[in-house]
Amino acid sequence: MLWIVLGVVLAVAEIFTTTLFLIMFAVGALAAAGAAALGAPVEVQAIVFAGVSALTVLGVRPTLRRHRRSALESGEQPFGVEAIEGSTALVLEQVDAGQGMVKIDGELWQARSYDASQHFAPGDRVQVIQVRGATALVWRDDVSPSGELPEAKR
């Protein structure tokens, strides 16, 4: 029963850390619980816990981390939020450090100025520097013809 409790506690802790590390030990604890259910002695249970935890950390975690890379890092076509970052937007309602509204590819987005000292009036063109949650952080649209981003993004 102790292994099951440990496995559940580690799995719940993973929800708060999102590092994909504690879940590996939760899997080891649940494997040890399986060994205990089969009547294995405590020493064997501990070896199962250590072995399964090590195998998942060394085998599964690198694969998970590789799949978590962004599309830009992996050379794939970006989609979702990654596709929005770097695009041009039209200001619909005044955008400042606190609030605003822009139109990005036909969709309405809440927006804030990436630089707190900048303000944008309706009709201005801006560039999406970053997306945080459902809010686009924007900068004046001063992308050079070569496609370079403003200094703050580099």
TrEMBL record:
Its main location: membrane. It comes from the Bacteria. One of its GO terms (cellular component) is plasma membrane. GO terms for biological process: proteolysis. It is found in: Membrane. This is Membrane protein implicated in regulation of membrane protease activity. Pfam families: NfeD. It is a multi-pass membrane protein. One of its GO terms (molecular function) is peptidase activity. Residues 82-140 form the NfeD-like C-terminal domain. The chain crosses the membrane at residues 41-60. InterPro entries: Membrane_assoc_protease, NA-bd_OB-fold, NfeD-like_C. Keywords: Hydrolase, Membrane, Protease, Transmembrane, Transmembrane helix.
